[in-house]
Automatic annotation (TrEMBL):
The name this protein goes by in its record: Methyl-accepting chemotaxis protein
Domain of life: Bacteria
Source organism per UniProt: Pseudomonas graminis
């Protein structure tokens, strides 16, 4: 293999690795966005559940008096 051929092969391999890293980073970004959305949904549900618990405690307190 000549130097120009070896150089071209190495450049192609580096480009291939760079594309793989790019795809991996995009996947990580997408998973991070999904995780963030899931966290937001969990926060909303938790707040709603907390409010339901407060309401239930108030209703139960009425029966005690």
């Amino acid at each position: 293999m000549t130097w120009p051929d070896a150089y071209a092969t190495a450049s192609e391999e580096q480009a291939h690795v760079a594309r793989e890293v790019d795809r991996a980073l995009i996947s990580i970004r997408n998973l991070s966005l999904q995780s963030s959305e899931g966290t937001q949904q969990t926060l909303i549900a938790s707040n709603e559940l907390s409010q339901l618990a407060v309401n239930l405690n108030q209703m139960v307190a009425r029966f005690k008096t």
